[in-house]
Amino acid sequence: MRFKSIKRIRDFRALQKPGLFLFLVFLFPKLYSQDTQFEIFTGTPEFSILYDKKGSPLDSISASLLAEDIYKVSHKKPLVTTDVNKTKGNTIVIGQLNSDLISKFVGSNDLPRKFKNQNESFLHKVVKDEAKKILVVAGTDPRGTAYGVFELSEKIGVSPWYWWADVPVKKQKEIIIEQEEFYSKEPSVEFRGIFLNDEDWGLQPWAEKTFEPEVGDIGPKTYAKIFELLLRLKANTIWPAMHPSTKAFFHYQGNPEMAEKYQIVIGTSHAEPMLRNNVDEWDKEPMGSFNYLSNKENVYKYWEERVKETKDIDAIYTLGMRGIHDSGMEGVKGIEEAKANLQNVLKDQRKLLKTYSSKEVTGVPQAFTVYKEVLDVYDHGLELPEDVTIVWTDDNYGYIRRLGNEEERARKGGGGVYYHASYWGRPHDYQWLSTTHPALIRNEMMKAYKNNSRKMWILNVGDLKPAEYNMQLFMDMAYDIEKFEEPEYVDKHMQDFYSNAFGKAKGKPIANIKKEYYNLAFERKPEFMGWSQTEPTTKIDTTAYTPFSWGDEINRRIDSYEALEEKTEKIQHQIPEVTRDAYFQLVHYPVKAASFMNKKFLYRDLALKYLKQNRLIVKKYKNLSHTYYDSIASITRRYNEEVSGGKWKGMMDMAPRKLPVFDKPEISFYLDPNYSTAAGISVENASGVEDLQLPAFYENSPQNHFFDIYLKQPKSVKWSVQNVPSWLQLSETKGNLTKDGITEKRITVAVDWQKWRQVNRPKNAELNPRLGKRRHKINMQLRSYKLAETGENIFTEQNGLVVIYAENYSGKTDRDEFKWERIPGLGYSRNLMQSFPLTGKPLDTLQLQEKSPYLEYTLYTESLTKNAELVLHALPTHPLTNEHGMRIGVQWNDGPVEIVDFRTYGRSEEWKQNVLRNLAKVHIPVEIQEAGKQILKIYMVDQGVALDFIYVNLQDQSLPYSLLPETRFN
């Protein structure tokens, strides 16, 4: 089989119509194939890789890894040499542009001037040399060369994740590529990398006991594999692991040496100034407190030692000072003292760099990370040198706290972002499964790029596994942001990722599975399903999902996860055996484990919440809850002991930090064996056990409702529903409840509206369920709206509630560059309306009606009330800059425009609830003076506000945790 990868052409642009290109190749093969076709291996024993012996050590590493990659595909290994006279057959030549070796094949005058001045860029070019062909892979620097080599590896079918996720390589009898002359772009972000953090639960014990027992820690062997992965992802930076379980990066001599070989830039986290790991390297016994006010001399010497040691390495120095490990600065009282102390720290750290670095201090990469309380100190007036990069941070849950204003964006040092895909801390950890929504990552990082935060992007990946896809996405964005300009591209990116791993036929269905996995976790992460918190740690509680109302939130979520499991298992049985280890790691384990965790708590909920009705089935639900706990343990054992022959033993921990959410649930209850009745009945949205009034049905609405019949005692009961009108559709009308069989039954009720109209549109009806000898009556109401206007986006009150998704406006008005735009794939509704541009100034609140863009919504109500409530739901993002809030203007009918703000401050309880549910809310009282048509307008004030959905609550009723279907007029 031949690989034909059509790459970008010389003018730096991607070929827009590859189908047309292939058609031209077919018509005019001599015109294209002779100059662009390169045969790496066609069954002949002679083919070579030539690299520059005077070049970087990374050239040698890249050449060897490429030879291994070719062997994985063909089972034939090319000759790898530095001697041009020893090459045989077609040859891949690897080196830097300015080297003597490359100049033999590519003349400097033939290269675009722009390309020659780019960093970390590469070219691919096929040239003829007598009877053989040469494929030149040349970089503008060593990393650029490596990127060019590993791009070639991907082209022949070797995934960057061949080792870290065991993505198999498809064997081929020959390897032939189509290679247009290609010049890469310069990376979008200069420093792109990962932070290995909270490694206690996976990466460190796995390295210690399984992969690198000779060191007993994360050492050079482990880092070599990590660095190789970074280069294959076209990344270049590491913040090394730094928890107490791990020795400092510089403790093992081989670690920095390995980074130098792989040309990886070493940095450190927000709490580790001057490349020091305080957790491991600061010994309080002889050195005193880590306090720059009381112990300046020792702290200064401590930093000085590391700066001397690292003065010639490729590094980014973190400036500033916090506590030993992710805590506030020691010894300071109040923000003014913190600022003054930090100002002195910065001055002395710069002095160290100026004294010992081989570069001018302004040429030494330096970063100041405004994490947690440091942002407050910075905003209090801290002065930073112009060349220092300000690294903005998210709030640990994926929402960037703020970005640079116009003045900060113009700084020479630029801006960066430190972003979390894993976190330990309040309000709750999420270190187990990687569930940060790709669309959220794309939205937040695009916002950062637009605001000139493009100097350094660091992703906290925790243990690295199972954050594989999010890491790929983050690095691809950092390397080439232009592809992600359109939010829809995330879907294509995910599909391509899984197509490359499991074949094109399976790429889309697997991507759809993972997309739904992220969607369900966006509503509530698996780690948050205990409704507990940490720091301080609290006990688990019942969830906010209800089984009694709004279509039964609990069973709806269980059904969603079970459908996802079914799809996952179906594909697992369809894919070849060789791909199943990779599938288990990338798809099967995260999906199944998330489902099991949800069902563990949701069945616990059903047991405890149905206990109030003395339902016999609560025993079954208790057992199911415990069964799913056991299922998590079982599938995790499989990850550690069976997958890939035990390669990942110790990598997956099902209970990081042993928080209560991971425990086997305790479910204690008492069922009254002498309950007054053997069976019971309850209806959806009932206010009490005896309230047998179904929610109203609205003409042409697809909404169904339900009632439950269930055993309260271990007996057998016959049931039936009598006198059912012809226009009503019931899922069942009779049956038996038995203590050892079916102990409960849900009956769904739907209306055949065509038949209903044929019998003169009755407004009321009743059902007559019979349980044993006992008869019941369920009342029903049927309602209609008669509207003069028609339109797709008209909404009506139904059962005291109007539900509108923000994208479904009835009118939209833009004002020049200011506008509301749809962001697909994100939010509860999966389509947000966000205010743009993301770089603008806030709008004048006094001129909103004249100058602000707005969204308009049309709705009709049947209630007349002074106590209605408008509930607006948005993404819990933070202000773009220190000049912004998260404000919008809200106008109800012809009333005044009210300014409301979604902004939260610090780690308030409101912020905690916002990030736990990925939703911010504002509540606005409104008055319905006349039933009928109402108009709602949402005006832009601050850019970046992302509106999700809208409720109008007219009956002071408790609202659901999950999103309800829209109440459209049909």
Automatic annotation (TrEMBL):
<dbReference type="InterPro" id="IPR041437">
    <property type="entry name" value="GH115_C"/>
</dbReference>
<keyword id="KW-0175">Coiled coil</keyword>
<dbReference type="Pfam" id="PF17829">
    <property type="entry name" value="GH115_C"/>
</dbReference>
<dbReference type="InterPro" id="IPR042301">
    <property type="entry name" value="GH115_sf"/>
</dbReference>
<keyword id="KW-0378">Hydrolase</keyword>
<protein>
    <recommendedName>
        <fullName>Gylcosyl hydrolase 115 C-terminal domain-containing protein</fullName>
    </recommendedName>
</protein>
<feature type="domain" description="Gylcosyl hydrolase 115 C-terminal">
    <location>
        <begin position="795"/>
        <end position="963"/>
    </location>
</feature>
<dbReference type="GO" id="GO:0016787">
    <property type="term" value="F:hydrolase activity"/>
</dbReference>
<dbReference type="InterPro" id="IPR031924">
    <property type="entry name" value="GH115"/>
</dbReference>
<dbReference type="Pfam" id="PF15979">
    <property type="entry name" value="Glyco_hydro_115"/>
</dbReference>
<feature type="coiled-coil region">
    <location>
        <begin position="332"/>
        <end position="359"/>
    </location>
</feature>
<dbReference type="GO" id="GO:0005975">
    <property type="term" value="P:carbohydrate metabolic process"/>
</dbReference>
<dbReference type="InterPro" id="IPR029018">
    <property type="entry name" value="Hex-like_dom2"/>
</dbReference>
